[in-house]
Amino acid sequence: MFIAFRLLTVLVLLPFVLTWPLDFTEVKRTSASGLNNLKIRRNSEQEEHFVPKPGVRLLGTPGSSLFVEPYESITLECEAEGNSSPTIYWLKDGRRINQGAEDGVESIDNMRVREGFSRTRSRLYLDCVSAKDEGLYSCASESPHQRASEKTGLKLTESDRASGATCRLGTPARIYMWTRARIEVQGNDIQLFCRSSGNPRPQVVWMRENKDGERIQNSQKYKVLENGDLVIRNLSWGDLGGYTCMAQNIHGNAKTFTFVYPAAPESDSK
Question: How many CB atoms are located within 10 Å of the residue 267 CB?
Fold first, then answer.
């Protein structure tokens, strides 16, 4: 009965979670179920096991071209899925864009091997767009097994707006890359992305959805890295559920939601 409940959870609840507006303001939804890389293998005892499929693919990109009025502010969005935990970064005319002070990939020592499936979303914020922002933008995603990218051309439109328009100083806290969902084998460690930017630099906190919004503190189980990511050690069934990352500064705050599913390891018995 318990095995059947766990299988029902991943097959029914997870596709629903993956289509939620996960930043509390997002209205765009995806029709993909997110389970194309998820396989359930059964042994002679009929226990379900997670078998990840190597690779990474892009699910949503801004399109091949964008036309923007001068001094508008726009957001480019990109999403990728794969195993174990694909990262996303942006390039302009072939050169990588540094989105935050902690833009590099940071992890902790002695993390157990990551085998699972993950979906990552990223946004590139362009404020007060001018001629210097015109060019070819690329969303690139990488995993240990593969790299994928898509390009978008950005051009300014003709506008009657005054050329002397000014842009405000300071920017609100924004989360530009985060993990939307993660399936990982129990006993392994996972790293949930939450990369933020803003001026002044935002503070980042994590909370458990099923713990009445209780803030996660560093411990043997959890560690919030300098770049905002959350590491969960020795994943177990009790870690199932939602995790909220919040970034905030004096100009505003942003939230994202991550769903974690601890999958049963494949049995050694044949």
Answer: 13
Tokens of 3: 């095995």
CB–CB of 147/141 below 8 Å? yes
Alpha helices (H) in 9-105, listed in sequence order = 14-17
At residue 79, the pLDDT reads: 95
* Residue type (1 letter), 177: M
Q: What percent of the chain has pLDDT over 90?
A: 51
pLDDT at 52: 52
Of the candidates 151, 125, 126, 140, which has an alpha carbon nearest to the alpha carbon of residue 64?
151
| 200-244 per-position pLDDT tens digit | 899 999 999 876 778 999 999 999 999 999 999 999 999 999 999
Classified as helix, coil or strand, 8 is: helix
Considering only the C-alpha atoms of the chain, give the largest distance between any 2 of them, rounded to a whole number of Å: 73
Measured in degrees and rounded to the nearest 5, phi and psi for residue 133 equal -90, -10
For residues 166 and 127, is the Cβ–Cβ distance under 8 A? no
H-type helices in the chain, by residue range? Answer: 2-8, 14-17
Give the tens place of pLDDT for each residue, 128-162.
899 999 999 999 998 877 889 999 999 999 765 54
pLDDT of residue 146: 82
Nearest CA to 39 out of 1, 11, 58, 59 is that of 11
- Going from the C-alpha of 139 to that of each of 136, 149, 209, the distances in angstroms are 10, 5, 30
| DSSP label of 2 | H
- Under 8 Å CB-to-CB from 112, ≥6 apart: which residues? 187, 188, 189, 234
* Separation in Å, CA 205 to CA 62, 92, 145, 156, 234: 29, 30, 31, 37, 21
